Each structure stands twice: as C-alpha cells, then as structure tokens.
C-alpha cells in the first residue's frame, strides 16, 4: 500500500488545479488519470476563454492547459497517466489499474475530479459509422489532426455544439446544418453568430428522424417537432452528410464518488452533495469540476483551487486564517462567473430582456444571428463618422476582455463582467484592431460607414487558413451568411499579440458596411 497526503482522481482542469493547491501547501500529492495525456478537455479547446483576466480570458484552452501542467510540475505534483482508478474503498484506499497490474494507494484526503461524459440520444440509424459525440470529433481534430468527416451535421446548439461546429469549419469540414429540438439556441449568441455568418443554417424545433446509409452515414432526415418534441409528419427534410455529431449535453462521471457511500442528488445527472468547498458527506472525500455539476472549464478550475485549499485545511497543512484568505479570493472569482442569463440558477430559463432591460434579440435565438434592427438596440453600437467599434454582444455573459484591450477607452463594460459592453460615445477609435482580436466571441468589428468614394470599410476577426492577403477579392457575407456585395481585402493584421486571430479589413460599398460581417475569397 503506497501512501500519499492527497490523491486526486482526474487530470483535467479541476483536478490539476486542486493538486496544485495541495502541493503548494506541502502535501505529497499524486494525480491519476486514465488518459494518455493530462489536461482533460483543455487541450481540445482551441478557442479563447471568456471571463476576466483573473479567469484567463482571451487565452486559448490549450495554452491554459500547458500552463497548468507546468505549474503542477513546478510544485511537485506527481501525475500518473494511463492509470484507471477502479475503486474507492473504506479508509480512503483506492485501486489503480496500470498496464497489466493493479496497485493500491491510500491518502488522508481524496479529491474526485473525473469530469463528465457525453450524452447520446437514439434515432434510427444511430449505430452507423459516422455518428459520434461532438467531443469525440473535437478530439480527432484538435488532438490527433484527423478530420471527422467532410459534410457534418451537428445535433445540439449548446456551447459545445456551437464551438465544435466552428472548429469543424476551421478544420476544413463543411457543416451541413445545426439542428436542435429546442425553440431557441441554447449556447452563447456570439458563438452562434460566428457560425451563422459563414453560411451554416440553423434548424430550431427540429430533430433527427433517421440516419441513412449502408456501411456509413450518407444522409440524414430531420423533421420539425411539435410541443411534445415529436416529429411532425410531412415536415421531413433529407440532407446529404457523411457524419453526425451529437452535442446534447453531458453526464457527470460520478461512479467513483458514489462508491464512497456519500449522499448523492440529481442535478443534470447524479452528483454528490457538496458544501461550497467541495466536501462530500464523507469526511476527507471531496469532489470538484463537472463531476459535482456541469459548468464551464473556467468554473471547474476555480472549483479545483477551492477544493484543493479545503483538502489542505482538512489535513492540517494550512491554518484557518490562510485558508479563509485564499478561498475567499477564489469564491469571489467564481461568483463573477455565476451571474447573468447563463448562470446555473437560470438554466432552462429564457429571459425576455437583458439585465439592462433591453428586449432580447429574437432572431438570434431562433436563427443564430441578429438582424440589423436588433443589433442597433444594444449599447455596443454607436453610429458616427469615421472608424468606430461595433460590438454585437447582446447577452449578459461573463466576459470583459474588450474593455482591457482598448488602449483608448472606447469600450466600457461596467461594474460586473456580465454587463453588456458599451461604446463610449465621445471616444476616438484609432483603428488598432486590438479589441477585434481580443474578443473571445468574435463579436467586435471596426466599421467606417463612409471611407470615401462610395465605399466603407469593415475590420473583422478571421481564424481560417489560409489567411487572405491584401488585394484579394471575394464576397462579403452578412450575419446570416448570405453574400451581399463584392469585397476587397485592404489590410491584414496578424500580430503575435493577437494569438492567431487575424484582423481582416475589407472594402465594401458603404451601404453594406453595417451588414458585411465575413469575407469569402473568390475561387480561382
């Protein structure tokens, strides 16, 4: 029996964060993970994070993962991979399957951070090759460099479905459609908008009836659903596709924590009852991250830090005063993420207005994009002469990098990171493009509605390869992905500080400057 001060099960964002806190306190800490590489979901997340600077906002998940691993190594955390914990037993003993043998370990404190697994839903033909979870597709693309398919239909418009759809496009796949039985887009509107402007259609109040094919998926039949989510006969549409990605939610992987005999509850799946520090009903057993309730990775990391601190206090490695000081900082940081319309307490609710009392953009919820009349009701749009920022952020999501990115004070978020970003009317934009590149939702554009000679200019975020060059011609697409006019690339800024988000400035007829939101280079 090998003994440690702290055992952490799971090397994802929550587990690594917890292990770091334990090791910092002086605990001999070990992490076990069944995967071949650590970092959990972080290394699949190539998009920029939301939140504030303290939440690692505008940093890509893969970079956050690398930072966590470096920090864990520096403080002496022992990370064991390809090590499957098969049981937690009395006296805080665990058994670990490593290779062809089983080893036993014991610690005074155990933190379970096993994360969550994708949900699947059955439909006719769902067992055909080509039907997979969205996370599996993300793993293929972002970890192994393999395209999951060529023509892909995404089932689910939560953040996972939206983010993975965009990454599929970045990988060179064609996304046939986004389909969801719900009446509204489930994830952040800015995620939906950046997919919609590339021309991907949204089918809300629709579901999959059948996947067709012989030895693999060749097409999919979708249909509109009624109030009971049953397909309506006569509304079927068949779409050509070779891959179906399913993004209909996650199930907490709570099997191990259940073995301890701690009290459990239903919360989007079976999760342990925990206090605010992650302590379960069994003394010395803690849970952190998605295993205790599904949230974003930013929240999981903070929960990990909190739980690691609590474990160190429980085992006597830090004093109460030090614990209170450090944990309160983490709790305040977590509280900032748990406000706004996507806060855990608002799950399943559809607000009619923003926190500021502005009517919600119905088109965004139903089609994935705002129409122009909806855009202009938000404080991120101030029409004026010259180059000015246009911020198409219409939901109270926890995010404020735009405010810090602008060195000229053109953008103000407010007292809380879930306040809608506003353009400061008296400010003067210098057209640097920093806010465009910094926005994790790719929702900021720099617009000059009259640049002279009948033209306007639009600077927009661009994360596709190859990056266009000055002089390239093509079409400007509007928010729905429809071509609205000819466009020419005037300038491309692809600075190291922009972290792989190029800022593309295109020239369009001035009457289309408030419509053009994407550039598609003409084929040669």
Defining traits:
FAD/NAD(P)-binding domain; 3 domains; 12 helices; alpha/beta; single chain; 28 strands; 7-stranded antiparallel beta sheet; 524 residues; 22% helix; 7-stranded mixed beta sheet
Secondary structure: elements and pairs:
Elements: E1 2-9, H1 13-24, E2 29-32, H2 61-74, E3 78-80, E4 83-89, E5 93-98, E6 101-112, E7 116-118, E8 131-133, H3 134-142, E9 151-155, H4 159-170, E10 174-180, H5 189-196, E11 202-204, E12 206-212, E13 219-224, E14 237-240, E15 243-246, E16 250-252, H6 255-259, E17 264-266, E18 270-272, E19 285-287, H7 297-314, H8 320-337, H9 362-367, H10 372-375, E20 387-391, H11 401-405, E21 411-412, E22 422-423, H12 434-438, E23 444-452, E24 455-462, E25 473-477, E26 483-493, E27 502-509, E28 518-521
Parallel strand pairs: 1-2, 1-6, 2-3, 6-19, 8-15, 9-10, 9-15, 10-11
Antiparallel strand pairs: 4-5, 5-6, 7-16, 12-13, 13-14, 17-18, 20-23, 21-22, 23-24, 24-27, 25-26, 25-28, 26-27
What are the low-pLDDT stretches, counting only 5+ consecutive residues below 50?
A: none
The total of helices stands at 12
* Overall pLDDT: 95
> Would you identify the CATH architecture of the largest domain?
3-Layer(bba) Sandwich
Strand content: 25-35%
What percent of the residues sit in helical stretches (DSSP H or I)? 10-25%
The helix-and-strand class reads alpha/beta
* Main beta-sheet annotation: 7 strands, mixed
- The first-level CATH class of the largest domain is given as Alpha Beta
Shape: globular
Query: Regarding quaternary structure, how should these chains be classified?
Result: single chain
Report the radius of gyration as a whole number of Å: 24 Å
CATH superfamily (homologous) name of the largest domain = FAD/NAD(P)-binding domain
């Amino acid at each position: 029996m090998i003994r440690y001060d702290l055992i952490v099960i799971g090397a994802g964002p929550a587990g690594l964060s917890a292990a770091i806190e334990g090791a910092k306190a002086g605990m001999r800490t070990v992490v076990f993970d069944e995967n071949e590489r650590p970092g959990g979901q972080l290394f699949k997340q190539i998009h920029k994070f939301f939140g504030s600077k303290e939440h690692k906002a505008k940093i890509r998940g893969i970079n956050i993962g690398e930072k966590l691993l470096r920090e864990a190594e520096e403080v002496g955390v022992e990370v064991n991979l390809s090590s499957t914990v098969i049981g937690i037993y009395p006296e805080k003993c665990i058994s670990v399957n490593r290779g062809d043998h089983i080893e036993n370990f014991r610690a005074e404190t155990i933190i379970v951070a096993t994360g969550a697994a994708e949900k699947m839903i059955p439909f006719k033909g769902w067992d055909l090759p080509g039907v997979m979870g969205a996370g599996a597709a993300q793993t293929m693309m972002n970890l192994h460099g393999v395209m999951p398919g060529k023509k892909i239909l995404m089932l689910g418009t939560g953040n996972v479905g939206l983010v993975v759809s965009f990454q599929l496009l970045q990988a060179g796949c064609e996304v046939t459609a986004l389909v969801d039985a719900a009446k509204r887009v489930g994830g952040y509107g800015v995620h939906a908008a950046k997919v919609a402007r590339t021309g991907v259609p949204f089918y809300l109040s629709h579901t999959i009836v059948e996947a067709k094919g012989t030895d693999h998926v060749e097409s999919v039949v979708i249909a509109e659903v009624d109030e009971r989510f049953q397909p309506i006969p006569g509304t079927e549409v068949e779409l050509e596709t070779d891959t179906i990605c399913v993004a209909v939610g996650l199930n907490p992987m709570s099997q191990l924590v259940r073995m301890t005999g701690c009290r459990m509850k239903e919360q989007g799946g079976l999760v342990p009852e925990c206090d605010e520090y992650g302590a379960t009903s069994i003394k010395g057993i803690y849970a952190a991250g998605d295993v205790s309730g599904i949230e974003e990775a930013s929240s999981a990391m903070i929960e990990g830090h909190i739980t690691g601190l609590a474990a160190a206090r429980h085992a006597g490695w830090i004093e109460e005063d030090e614990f209170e000081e450090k944990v309160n900082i983490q709790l305040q940081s977590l509280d900032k993420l748990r406000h706004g319309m996507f806060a855990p307490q608002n799950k399943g609710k559809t607000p009619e207005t923003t926190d500021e009392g502005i009517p919600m953009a119905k088109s965004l919820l139903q089609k994935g994009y705002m129409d122009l009349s909806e855009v202009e009701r938000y404080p991120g749009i101030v029409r004026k002469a010259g180059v000015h920022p246009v911020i198409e952020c219409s939901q109270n999501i926890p995010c404020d990098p735009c405010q810090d990115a602008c060195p000229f004070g053109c953008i103000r978020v407010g007292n809380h990171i879930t306040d809608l970003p506003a353009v400061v009317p008296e400010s003067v934009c210098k057209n640097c493009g920093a806010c465009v590149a910094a926005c994790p939702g790719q929702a900021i554009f720099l617009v000059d509605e009259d640049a002279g000679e009948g033209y306007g200019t639009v600077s927009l975020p661009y994360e596709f390869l190859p990056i266009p060059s000055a002089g390239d011609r093509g079409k400007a697409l509007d928010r729905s992905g429809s071509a609205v006019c000819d466009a020419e690339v005037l300038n491309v800024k692809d600075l190291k500080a922009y972290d792989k988000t190029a800022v593309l400035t295109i020239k369009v007829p001035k009457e289309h400057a408030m419509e053009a939101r994407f550039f598609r280079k003409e084929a040669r």
